[in-house]
């Protein structure tokens, strides 16, 4: 799953190019203003050893954005329906950070995520029926 999330377009790996932290952390309290520089850090992701795949040479910008959105939706659904319920929880922090980079990169991903979480059935399944 992580390979799909990271390497669907190896010339633009979103978690490498987009910060997983928001730049508004310093607004909460003046004591946290010195952490602002840290907020801009991106994730260190091991580069693929395969042949680079440049999605932009074969697709329009609209198709790239649509594919990015589909990858995000797939990743988020996998995270909540499979990964959180698995016995191996070691991938949860990294996957959470990857999801945050997609949300910070594209507001459409954030809107879709919010719309899914205000769905009563989704909340029941994740919060109440998740053992």
Q: Descriptors for this entry?
A:
0% strand, 7 helices, 53% helix, mainly alpha, globular, 131 residues
Protein architecture, described:
The model has no long low-confidence stretch (mean pLDDT 76). The chain has one domain. The protein has 7 helices and no strands. The chain has helices at residues 2-7, 14-17, 36-39, 61-81, 92-105, 107-117, 120-128. Helix 4 (61-81) runs antiparallel to helix 5 (92-105) and helix 4 packs parallel to helix 6 (107-117). The chain has 131 residues and is mainly α.
How would you characterize the largest beta sheet? none
Task: Kindly report how far apart the N and C termini lie.
Answer: 22 Å
Low-confidence stretches: none
DSSP, total strands: 0
User: Which quaternary structure do these chains form?
Assistant: single chain
Rg result? 16 Å
Q: What portion of residues is helical?
A: 40-55%
State the order of secondary-structure elements, H for helix, E for strand: HHHHHHH
Number of H- or I-type helical stretches: 7
Entry summary:
By secondary structure, the chain is mainly α. The chain has seven helices and no strands.
Q: Topology, pairings included?
A:
Elements: H1 2-7, H2 14-17, H3 36-39, H4 61-81, H5 92-105, H6 107-117, H7 120-128
């Amino acid at each position: 799953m992580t390979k799909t999330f990271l390497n669907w377009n190896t010339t633009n790996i979103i978690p490498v190019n987009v910060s997983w932290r928001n730049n508004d952390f310093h607004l909460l309290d003046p004591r946290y203003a010195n952490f602002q520089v840290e907020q801009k850090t991106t994730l260190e992701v091991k580069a693929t050893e395969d042949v680079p795949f440049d999605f932009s040479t074969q697709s329009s910008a609209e198709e790239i954005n649509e594919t990015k959105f589909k990858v995000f939706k797939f990743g988020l659904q996998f995270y909540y329906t499979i990964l959180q319920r698995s016995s191996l929880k070691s991938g949860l922090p990294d996957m959470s950070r990857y999801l945050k980079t997609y949300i910070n990169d594209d507001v459409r991903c954030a809107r879709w995520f919010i719309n899914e979480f205000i769905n009563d059935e989704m909340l029941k399944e994740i919060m109440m029926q998740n053992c």
